């Protein structure tokens, strides 16, 4: 991994980093990846061995929820007429 | 004076019922200790202003006869568990001013019963850490030795209970975040079966691993909290329906498997000696100790440090400066995201977000994430297989004693190794309990940990109480 890989990942993850932070992260990632790499030596079947997973989602029907609407609106960093305001994207 | 040091839920309940003291007097006793100690320990980030309102409601229950075992019991609550109207910061600057808009399922249950929520406790940022040093709001100190860490990530909750600033507490576990601080603070910590306690209203770190987990000074206290909070919640898709919780058929056996090969290296000799001594004690009261092999479990922590960051990078993408939390000005939307997230997340959170982004990215997904899922399945299978022969798996809780504040911060892998014995339970979803097993010469606590098969918390409480009785 190189510094440009860190930059690319930071871009994907929407993180603004200073040059120092990038250098530190590069070093940390190296150490962690070295550690987790040990799973390479484990032999596993090619087939996906993840069992016991099944769909538990409820039907997509409207249900009452006890959320505080005011509580949500009050926390908008920017709003207009109780709508969340964001920067234009086009 | 109430003897807070030796107080348990049952004793407090009996005293409240007999009117030896009131709910208010009990809460005041803890608030007094908080006033004296919290500045130094930093266990609580906030003590709630409505404690006395809660206390009055609880007292009413004793007067009108509707009080239950939880009524009036003072709880410390980890700062990633939502309480409507209160700040829930998860120890992060990005949520410093975020106010919860609903109650977590476990909070709803506690409120209904009239438990007292004293305040919210410090934690590693987004529960990422093993020493409560990564919080954006300062370190928490270990009440047993203030030069040392309390463990983490639920270190504030552990310090609150160990420091007699709450009777009991809730933390959360993703990989040892309650058992490890229990060990460091001389407490009992239970990581329940995955799916036992609802995750609804918990700020998620690793969804496939997270569980709300109780702290107590005794095994019995964690048992009472577990039994009270372990309920199906239809709003948590991973909460297990009551009819699938196989409890009655499970036995409380006497055969303990010890995977010695997992801790041949890297364990403090003092911890090792205490572990062996503890096994001897159990043998003397009729337990059978056998050697077991868990060949895949030695990869647990490596697997964990792939799966968890993958889930972290996904979960933490919601904190973007748009709807709530820290929001930084920018020229365009992209800049708002990058600045808010860059400034809002601390070092450890950024590390794990990048790591997760990496293991999920094109070209690395199969080698890391997919492989880790498969090895996780192998670990789960081998643990379940071992439980066909033994009733418990025992290990030390943590490989070493509580370390000094400032240590391990520059070396992520050294910090991660705190949880090497915690990972198998979280990865396989089985319950695990950590409880004190004596003290070192410098008065620091030793701790041992037991796992049992899914839904067999009963066996863990049983062996824990047995062990307490022989000390």
What does this structure look like?
The complex is a heterodimer of chains A (90) and B (471). Chain A is built from 3 helices and 2 strands; from the N terminus they run αααββ. The two termini of chain A are 34 Å apart. Chain A is mostly helical. Chain A has a domain at 1-40: Histone, subunit A (Orthogonal Bundle). Chain A has a two-stranded antiparallel ribbon. Helix content of chain A is 38%, strand content 4%. The mean pLDDT of chain B is 96. Chain B has a domain at 4-244: Amidase signature (AS) enzymes, CATH 3.90.1300.10. Helix content of chain B is 38%, strand content 13%. With 471 residues, chain B is of the alpha/beta class. Chain B has 15 helices and 11 strands. Chain B has an 11-stranded mixed sheet, with helices on both faces. Chains A and B meet through helix 1, helix 2 and helix 3 of A and helix 9, helix 10, helix 11, helix 12 and helix 13 of B.
Strand order of the largest sheet of chain B: 1-3-2-4-6-5-10-11-9-7-8
Segments of chain B where pLDDT lies below 50 for 5+ residues? none
Please identify which CATH superfamily of the domain at 4-244 in chain B we are dealing with.
Amidase signature (AS) domain
Overall, the morphology of chain B is globular
**Mean model confidence by pLDDT of chain B:** 96
Q: How does the major sheet of chain B shape up?
A: 11 strands, mixed
Report mean pLDDT of chain A, rounded to a whole number. 89
Largest interface: A-B, 49 and 62 residues
At the first level of CATH, what is the class of the domain at 4-244 in chain B? Answer: Alpha Beta
Strand content bin of chain B: 5-15%
Helix content of chain A: 25-40%
Offer a quick outline of the entry.
Chain A has 90 residues and is mainly alpha-helical. Chain A contains three helices and two strands, in the order H-H-H-E-E. A two-stranded antiparallel sheet of chain A has the order 1-2.
